[in-house]
């Protein structure tokens, strides 16, 4: 009898252990299901990425079964190695570095635009004085050329301009504006360009280490708030009408089941940012400044940029084509690829249905 009881006790313990393992496995699977499909998205912290911050902050992605894992980069080119190596699945940043990724054989496509004409050239001190009081942008090529020459004559050195690293959208846009819009064949003859990351460009401008900088919002509003005499030398439209800004790009979008869902949520969020910036502000403020960015500054930046939050990727195709040709001309790309291959316009159209 004692033997039977002992045997029964052993069996009960074995049974309980099996049930415990099954329960833990079930809990793990349930938690995994609740977490949703993991999607790794590389992004840069700029206002043009606002749609990403909103759809994540509002919980829309989680409700749709997506577990977004956001990976921050200092510039678009810094994200490309991660894209090429498969460490991220999607990308929210400037469009031009994606041409480099495709040159490396990555089948990445732009499925939605985030913004247009977001980059502007802002100046301070003597260089800002070429801008008439009350005017921002819209200066003739001759006024700007004369201003650069006057600065060099009076200050004894070329104006120092902060952009982002070579190959980044800010760097390319600055050079394109100088060479194609102002007809200055050799940019190095009129300015010194410093390639730094986003935060460093803003800090260099605030500290007076540079005379001008290519910046996006909210950095533009931040520097103009702190430096009242700062002036816009060239608006985004001056640099290139419908200048391509931040985009949502996905690796092999037709092969991943979540691509259409993410595109739809991104477009929905971008529309909210454009039409109801007050609702978007808390999420954008947290993402960009960890809550340290002043609310009134962000509100002003969003309001100033509302018309630039454009989701239709077809709007930027021609601008990308012009800038790609420029990159080939500059030796940054070996050859021009069919720009249409970079875009999946159907994904955006389906998100509108």
**What are the segments in which pLDDT stays under 50 over at least 5 consecutive residues?**
23-33
How much helix, percentage-wise, in residues? 40-55%
What is the string of SSEs from the N terminus onward?
A: HEHHEHEHEEHHEHEHEHEHEHHHHH
The overall pLDDT, averaged over residues, is 88
Largest sheet: 5 strands, mixed
Gyration radius, rounded: 25 Å
First-to-last CA distance: 74 Å
- The percentage of residues in β strands lies in 5-15%
Q: What spatial order of strands do you see in the largest sheet? A: 2-1-3-10-4
| DSSP, total strands | 10
Q: Helix segment count?
A: 16
Morphology call: globular
Which structural category do the helix and sheet elements fall into? alpha/beta
Task: Offer a quick outline of the entry.
The protein is globular.
Give an overview in words.
With 353 residues, this protein is α/β, with parallel strands linked by helices. The protein contains 16 helices and ten strands. The protein has helices spanning 2-35, 50-57, 60-63, 76-84, 97-103, 125-128, 141-155, 169-181, 198-207, 219-226, 236-239, 259-275, 277-289, 295-305, 317-330, 345-351; strands at 37-43, 66-72, 90-94, 108-113, 120-123, 160-163, 192-195, 212-215, 231-234, 246-251. Helix 8 (169-181) links the parallel strand 6 and strand 7 (192-195). Helix 2 crosses helix 13, helix 4 runs parallel beside helix 5 and helix 12 packs across helix 13. The termini are far apart. Mean pLDDT is 88; it is low at 23-33.
